[in-house]
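Quick note —
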Amino acid sequence: MALTDIATFRIQHLQISDENGNLDSKLDPKLSKEQLLTMYRWMVLAREADERMLKLQRQGRIGTFALNSEQEAAQVGAGLAMGDKDWLVPSFREGAIRMMRGVPLVNDLLFYNGFEECCWMAKSVLVVPKPEERAPF
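Predicted structure written out below.
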């Protein structure tokens, strides 16, 4: 039996800067210095939290932990694009955007230790899962 193609597709890639950091001025998103600093601070905070949790996991002080490292920029960009009324439905490895949306870092530490209290957040935090409208502690 002969092989036949059942589908063909292509994946496009948009690159705003090259591997040396040179910006394509036509694609410049024109972010302010304040916006760039905000993004940088969130990325650094996410990386530091990640490194600390990895150390805790290797010491046996928290359970299984998935690194978020090298995904901070995608999360921070998406987080800054979200509006105040937008809900976040995070998936695996999205600690940075969870913090940006108001989830305290302690919630992740509780989660990685198997405590369901990690899901209890203030009503104003629009992140799922959300079984309670208020924090029990």
